[in-house]
Write a structure and sequence with these properties.
Order of helices and strands: HHHHHHHHHHHEEHEEHHHEEHEE
Helix content: 40-55%
Radius of gyration: 40 Å
Oligomer: single chain
Shape: elongated
Strand content: 5-15%
Number of domains: 2
Distance between the termini: 107 Å
Number of helices: 16
Largest sheet: 8 strands, mixed
Number of strands: 8
């Protein structure tokens, strides 16, 4: 009730105030002096000037024209590399460095077009096979004019003095990082002499010098900086990298050593002594499976490998369940053993599996062939049969699938693999 009374009193007060205001305004308008007052006239303004804007299409066309002109300049600078490569009939480091020397002799004073020259040279580095050579990157960084691009004060340095040149230098450093090339101290000296120690190029160089050496030595399975060109050597590297057994033995065969071979290619086979023992102990009534192809990457190279697999061991699942259920803090097993009252289930012994016996199956061997065809895999089984004659009495099932397009060993054109399953009932011939 009090809230309702308060609202009513508030409304009454507002009504009284409005009545007083209305009476006051009435008296003002009835005053004769107010009626004689001049009428206010608003000043007249001229119409607003229309806003002038540029045509967006013209701006875009101008940008496209500038990009076309930049690409034309880059192609013009690339002509030096292509002409010199055709003249010497070689695309190697010597030809690439000679092209840089020719440009520096022609533009020894003003170095006109050095940005377009460096951008074009970065695009041609992989074709000349110099994209992993730190000396070539330092030679390209020395193309920038010395001392002319250094900021005079911190304000110029903060607002990126000569931005196009600095962006080009950072693209050069990014190419080094993408190719796994770690810069050295002399590269830092070149950057300081060209852009100064407060430039953005120097900041990127310092970040690379901090992180790249850490990541370079972090891989537990290191590869050589420059991978071999031979497909056989690449296959050996891949098999040694995938093998978990340190006693793994990689053997390279020539398929033409077999009289029944129809595919002329190499076969790199990986098998360890423990795998040979598992192969000899395998039940002859159970089949072995040749599966693949699977992909393995060695930096920018990709290979296709195959495995010889057996079904998983029957007691392996029970062993894994017992291992998972073991409580490390439980001392009952030791107590039962002490009093001679251990349970029969706990007294049961299950042999621990080897590294090759996995829940998905037992890996007997691995291989990489030059053509990844079924004929080369049959030849691989025949070569394994020389050291393990038991394979002659074991049925072999070929379960092959076609890898994605473009995923084939380097320098080889693989034949398409047959899908489905093919079984050799009496073993390989």
């Amino acid at each position: 009730m009090t809230s309702v009374a308060a609202d009513c009193s508030y409304c009454c007060l507002r009504c009284l105030r409005l009545q007083r205001v209305s009476k006051f305004t009435h008296r003002v308008f009835q005053n004769p002096q107010f009626q004689k007052a001049p009428i206010l006239t608003l000043p007249t303004y001229s119409p607003l000037r229309p806003l002038h804007t540029t045509n967006a299409t013209e701006h875009r066309e101008g940008t496209v024209a500038e990009r076309k002109e930049e690409r034309y300049r880059q192609r013009k600078e690339l002509e030096l590399f292509n002409e010199l490569a055709q003249l010497k009939e070689a695309r190697d480091k010597e030809t690439f460095m000679q092209a840089i020397d020719i440009y520096l002799q022609k533009q020894s004073v003003y170095k006109r077009g050095h940005v377009d020259f460096i951008q074009g040279a970065v695009k041609e580095m992989q074709s000349f096979d110099v994209h992993k050579d730190v000396e070539v990157y330092k030679a390209l960084m020395e193309v920038f004019p010395e001392g002319e691009l250094v900021a005079k004060n911190l304000i110029q340095a903060e607002f990126m003095h000569f931005p196009r040149q600095q962006h080009t230098a950072m693209e050069l450093l990014s190419a080094m990082g993408n190719n796994g090339v770690v810069p050295d101290d002399s590269m830092g000296d070149i950057i300081v002499s060209r852009f100064g120690k407060h430039s953005y190029v120097m900041k990127k160089y310092r970040r690379m010098m901090y992180w790249m050496p850490k990541f370079k030595h972090m891989n537990p399975y290191p590869l050589p900086m420059i991978l071999p060109r031979s497909s056989v050597e690449l296959a050996e590297l891949a098999l040694n990298r995938m093998a978990v057994d340190k006693l793994n033995d990689v053997t390279v065969y020539d398929s033409m050593d077999l009289e029944s071979a129809s595919d002329d290619t190499f076969i790199a086979s990986a098998i360890s002594p423990s795998q040979r023992e598992l192969l000899n102990q395998h039940d002859k009534r159970k089949a072995l499976f040749v599966e693949g192809g699977f992909k393995v990457w060695l930096k920018d190279q990709v290979l296709v490998y195959f495995i010889l697999r057996a079904d998983p061991r029957p007691d392996l699942l029970k062993y894994n369940e017992r291992v998972d259920d073991v409580d490390k803090e439980d001392v009952s097993s030791g107590f039962y053993t002490f009093i001679g009252a251990e349970d029969e289930e706990k007294r049961a012994v299950i042999a621990a599996p080897s590294v090759h016996e996995q829940p998905e199956g037992t890996i007997m061997a691995m291989c990489i062939t030059g053509s990844s065809s079924k004929d080369s895999l049959v030849a691989w089984i025949n070569f394994l049969q020389r050291d393990s004659p038991c394979l002659a009495n074991i049925p072999i099932v070929f379960s092959l699938r076609t890898p994605e397009s473009g995923v084939q060993p380097a320098d080889y054109t693989a034949e398409p693999l047959e899908e489905g399953m093919t079984q050799l009932e009496s073993g390989p011939s």
